[in-house]
Design goal:
The chain is an alpha+beta fold. It is built from 15 helices and 29 strands. A hairpin with a 5-residue loop joins strand 15 and strand 16.
Length: 562
C-alpha cells in the first residue's frame, strides 16, 4: 500500500491480478443437510443459487489449509459491531486475520474497538477467521506485494456454529468478513430465526418540497447504480436526498407494525470506475480523505485515477495503471483501473449522510425497490399489485453480469432479490420467509421495480439517470401518499400519462420508456418458468408459482392494449 498526496490520509493498494473479485464458485454454505443450504435443481442442471459443503468436508478443508498458515505474520484480533454499538438491531462479530489491509478496511467498514467488547460481555458473537494463506518464508513470489493463495481460496459460512472461515483471498468481498459473509449470508439465517430481514439494499431518505420525508430501501445487483442512488443529487428543486446506507439493510417490524431499517455498515465500499463529479459528486467528496483505494490507477501528482475521471485530471499529469504500466494512455488498449476497483471510506464523511443514519431504532421504510440492468422490454418503473406480487417481482430480478463477480462478458443473469451470491440458506425458503412478512397489523411498504438502463434501437439509453432518477422517486413518493397517479398494466401499476415529472427532458420518449412488447414479455415468462423449474424445483413457494401463472394470463392480452 502507498500513501496518496492529493487525498488526505488515504492509501492505495494494488492486488495480485488473480485476486480482484468475489469468488462465487468457491463460496460455500456449510450445513448438515444440503437442502438446508441450497434448492435442489432439476436433474442434469447445475444450480446457481449457492454452493453447499458438508460439515465433514468443511472440517477437512480447514485442516488442509490453516495449520501454519499465518507463520511469520502478525495476527489481528478485530472486535466489531454490525450496526450502531448497543442497538437492539445490531450484531457483534470478532475476526482474526493476518492481513493489515483487512484490519485497516474493517476499521472503516465496521464499528470496531474495545467498546464493542464492553457491550458484548459474555454474549454470543459471530466467529470469523481469515488468512491470506501465504506464510513466511514465501513459497512463491508476490505480485504487487500482495499475499494471497488463489489456488486454495475458499469462503465458507456455517450458520449452525455461527462461524465464517475464509482462506486465500485478500479482496474485500472475500476477506472483510463483516460485509457479505456476516451481514448477508450469516445475517439472513439469523434474520430468518428471529423474524426479520437481512438484505442487499441501500437505504435513502427523501424529503419532498412540502417537507414530507420518507425512506426507501432498494435492491440492485452490484454495479447497477446503488451507490449513485444512495448519494443522489436531485435535478428537481426543493428535494432533499439523504443517505443512510449504500449496500446492506437490516429490517425489522416494530411493535406498531412499521418496518424499520438500519445500515449495519460504517463505511462505503464502492465501485470506482464511472464515479466522478458529474455522476456522483457526493461519493467523490466522501472519498477525499481517510480512504483506502484498491486497484485504481495513480497519478504523478500523488492522486488517483479511474475511468470516468478524464475531465478531472490535468493533461500534463502522467498516469500509472493498476497493473503498474507507467505513462498509461487510452491507446494502450487496457483500462487504467480494474473494472472492479474500489474506494473504501467512512460513511460519516458523506455530505448527504442522514441525521438518523445511526439511530438505534432504525428508520421507517415506506417503499422497497428492485431493479437491474435490463436493456430491453422492462419499463422505467412499475408498482406491484400486492405484497405477494412484490415478492414475485423480487424473485424475478435479472441483470447484466458485473465485474464484481468472476463472470465474463455482458450476459443477462437471474439474480433474485439481488441476493443470488449472498443467500445464507435455501433460496426457496428465503422466498417463503419474505411471504411470511405479510401479517395482520403490519404497515407493509409498497414494492416497485425500476430500470434506469433501457436502451433504444441504436443502443443509447432512453433515460438520463443519475440525478434525474429523483423524478421516478417523486412518483414513488406520490404513490406512498396514496395519490391516484398509477394505472394498471399486465405487469403492474404504471405511471399515468403526465404523472411523471419530465419538465426539461425535451428529448424523452415516454412511450418507448413504458412500452411493453408482447413478444418480449412472453419470452420473459417462458424464461422465468424455466428458471424457477430448473433452479428452485420443489423448493419454489406455490404462491410464487401462482403469481407467475397470473402474469402469463395477463400477458396473453397484452397486444390488444399496449
Amino acid at each position: 500500500m502507498s500513501l496518496t498526496v492529493s487525498f488526505l490520509l488515504s492509501w492505495l493498494a494494488r492486488t495480485d491480478p488473480a485476486d480482484v473479485a468475489r469468488v462465487e464458485s468457491r463460496t460455500f454454505v456449510v450445513t448438515k443437510r444440503k437442502q438446508e443450504a441450497i434448492p435442489t435443481p432439476k436433474s442434469g442442471i447445475r444450480g446457481t443459487l449457492g454452493n453447499w459443503m458438508s460439515m465433514e468436508q468443511w472440517k477437512a478443508a480447514i485442516q488442509e489449509r490453516f495449520p501454519g498458515c499465518m507463520t511469520g505474520r502478525t495476527m489481528y484480533v478485530i472486535p466489531y459491531s454490525m450496526g450502531p454499538v448497543g442497538s437492539p438491531l445490531s450484531k457483534i462479530g470478532i475476526e482474526l486475520t493476518d492481513s493489515p489491509y483487512v484490519a485497516a478496511s474493517m476499521r472503516v467498514m465496521t464499528r470496531m474497538g474495545s467498546d464493542v467488547l464492553d457491550v458484548l460481555g459474555n454474549g454470543e458473537f459471530t466467529k470469523c477467521l481469515h488468512s491470506v494463506g501465504s506464510p513466511l518464508p514465501l513459497s512463491r513470489p508476490l505480485v504487487n506485494n500482495w499475499p494471497c493463495n488463489p489456488d486454495k481460496t475458499i469462503v465458507t459460512q456455517c450458520p449452525e456454529t455461527n462461524e465464517i472461515v475464509s482462506f486465500g483471498s485478500g479482496y474485500g468481498g472475500n476477506s472483510l468478513l463483516g460485509k457479505k459473509a456476516f451481514a448477508l449470508r450469516i445475517g439472513s439465517t439469523i434474520a430468518r430465526k428471529e423474524g426479520w430481514l437481512a438484505e442487499h439494499m441501500l437505504i435513502v431518505g427523501i424529503t419532498n418540497p412540502q417537507g414530507v420525508k420518507r425512506y426507501i430501501a432498494a435492491a440492485f445487483p452490484s454495479a447497477c447504480g446503488k451507490t449513485n442512488l444512495a448519494m443522489l443529487t436531485s435535478t428537481l428543486p426543493g428535494y432533499k436526498v439523504e443517505c443512510v446506507g449504500d449496500d446492506i439493510a437490516w429490517m425489522r417490524f416494530d411493535k406498531n407494525g412499521v418496518l424499520r431499517a438500519i445500515n449495519p455498515e460504517n463505511g462505503f465500499f464502492g465501485v470506482a470506475p464511472g464515479t466522478n463529479m458529474e455522476t456522483n459528486p457526493n461519493a467523490m467528496k466522501t472519498c477525499e480523505k481517510n480512504t483506502i483505494f484498491t486497484n485504481v490507477a495513480k497519478t504523478s501528482d500523488g492522486g488517483v485515477f479511474w475511468e470516468g475521471m478524464e475531465k478531472e485530471v490535468s493533461p500534463d499529469v502522467s498516469i500509472t495503471s493498476w497493473l503498474g504500466e507507467e505513462k498509461w494512455t487510452k491507446s494502450s488498449g487496457r483500462s487504467a483501473a480494474h473494472p472492479n476497483s474500489r474506494f473504501c471510506c467512512p460513511a460519516s464523511q458523506c455530505p448527504t449522510i442522514d441525521p438518523d443514519w445511526e439511530s438505534a431504532d432504525g428508520v421507517p421504510i415506506s417503499a422497497i425497490l428492485f431493479g437491474g440492468r435490463r436493456p430491453y422490454g422492462v419499463p422505467l418503473v412499475y408498482e406491484s399489485f400486492s405484497w405477494r406480487h412484490g415478492v414475485f417481482i423480487g424473485a424475478s430480478v435479472s441483470s447484466e453480469a458485473t465485474a464484481a463477480a468472476e463472470f465474463k462478458g455482458r450476459v443477462i443473469m437471474h439474480d433474485p432479490f439481488a441476493m443470488r451470491p449472498f443467500f445464507g440458506y435455501n433460496a426457496g425458503h428465503y422466498l417463503e420467509h419474505w411471504l411470511s412478512m405479510e401479517k395482520p397489523g403490519r404497515k407493509l411498504p409498497k414494492i416497485f421495480h425500476v430500470n434506469w438502463f433501457r436502451k433504444n434501437a441504436k443502443g443509447g439509453y432512453l433515460w438520463p439517470g443519475f440525478g434525474d432518477n429523483i423524478r421516478v422517486l417523486d412518483w414513488i413518493l406520490k404513490r406512498c401518499e396514496g395519490e391516484a397517479v398509477a394505472q394498471p398494466s399486465p405487469i403492474g401499476l404504471l405511471p399515468k400519462p403526465g404523472s411523471l415529472n419530465t419538465d426539461g427532458l425535451n428529448d424523452l420518449d415516454f412511450n418507448e420508456l413504458f412500452n411493453l412488447p408482447q413478444r418480449f414479455w412472453q419470452d420473459e415468462v417462458k424464461d422465468l418458468e424455466t428458471y424457477f423449474s430448473e433452479q428452485f424445483g420443489d423448493d419454489l413457494p406455490n404462491k410464487i408459482l401462482a403469481e407467475l401463472q397470473d402474469l402469463k394470463k395477463r400477458i396473453s392480452h397484452l397486444g390488444s392494449d399496449y
